[in-house]
Design brief:
With about 375 residues, the protein is α/β, with parallel strands linked by helices. The protein has two domains: about 190 residues, Glycogen Phosphorylase B (Rossmann fold, 3-Layer(aba) Sandwich), CATH 3.40.50.2000; about 140 residues, Rossmann fold. Helix content is about 45%, strand content about 15%. The chain has 16 helices and 13 strands. The chain has a seven-stranded parallel beta sheet, sandwiched between helices. Helix 6 links the parallel strand 6 and strand 7. Helix 1 packs across helix 7 and helix 3 crosses helix 4. The protein is globular and about 60 Å long. The mean pLDDT is about 95. The structure holds uridine-diphosphate-N-acetylglucosamine. The site of uridine-diphosphate-N-acetylglucosamine has 18 residues, from helix 1, helix 5 and helix 11.
Length: about 375
Amino acid sequence: MKKIDIIAGARPNFMKIGPVVHAIHRYNESATEQITYRLIHTGQHYDKKMSEDFFEQLNIPKPHINLGVGSGTQATQTANIMMRYEEAVKADKPELCLVVGDVTSTMACAIVAKKERVKVAHIEGGIRSGDENMPEEINRMVTDSITDFFFTTSNVANENLEALGHAEGKVFFVGNTMIDSLLGNLNRLQKPALVDENKLSEKSFLVMTLHRPSNVDGMESLRQLLEIINDNVGDKKVVFPMHPRTKKMYDQLGMNYDNLIITGPMSYLEFIYLIKNALGVITDSGGITEEATVLGIPCMTLRNSTERPETVTVGTNEIVGTNPENILPLLKKLIAGNWKKGGIPELWDGKTADRIVKIIGKL
Ligand code: UD1
């Protein structure tokens, strides 16, 4: 395939597509037939700190098209993305639509492409949490059901796809493009100002992120989580960069927590700096469990499931749930520095995007 659309819409997409764009440029330097691409930003995330800053820091070229859909309910976002991407496909039809991850933009563009008879390739295909309460799980199921070529991050994903009846020739186990970004930027990390402002030395702090609707959309669940963490970190501090969704509810709470250092969404190079220097990570994100695993940093996931089981079986992650009774013992272990050591999952080696582009060139 030589003419592709690359779709990105929300923050966790950008570090996954950046390496692919760079790998296409490398491929074209020696290829007899060039791969041309259109980078399409759906506009699902639009704040500078949730979007533009990532393009700048990761040297991703400006998108050719921004669909500018903005916020809304799941259905509104999906519908707007579909209507606007359909126009873009009708105006200039690609041979392949490359989607990544599990956000609303991923699913919406995959559906449009498939109906326009454009082949769909899914980076990070095949992963499943089994929890249909999360919109991402539905996005994964729908996207994978119409995907023509899967680029997978793990053997578990390969097995899931096999169980769903997807033929072996369609599934390519390539590794993790998010880890390409991580390893490729380790020597460019930037120390956030808050580190010196709060006199944070290495391993004297935790990093926390929470943005799942189940954790942050209810005032009581958010208050409980923040309270148990704030009250049980001893002399450690917790850096808490807040997603806009979380900030909305936090502002309504009107509480002050003296061990939490609250800040807005961080840039990529600053955020990875924090994780790399932290004693541990507390999160309800999936991607961050992968980054913590590769950096060997202890990680507690405040969810009841994960679609990335290798971060637990191989890596540093533990699934703790959201019940305060379960959180407390593990939090104590984390603070005491008494955590399991992890390894690196297979093929998470920083070379995944080159593998993907080589395969696309041959499809
Ligand atoms: C989305 C993804 C989630 C991912 C997360 C990372 C889906 C279903 N979910 O969730 O998988 O982990 O991104 O950030 O696609 N908002 C802003 N500025 C922005 C973007 C959003 O203020 O640039 C606010 C809006 O009030 C919006 C809310 O955040 O309503 C939620 O944004 P949305 O894109 O619906 O989902 P996320 O919770 O960000």
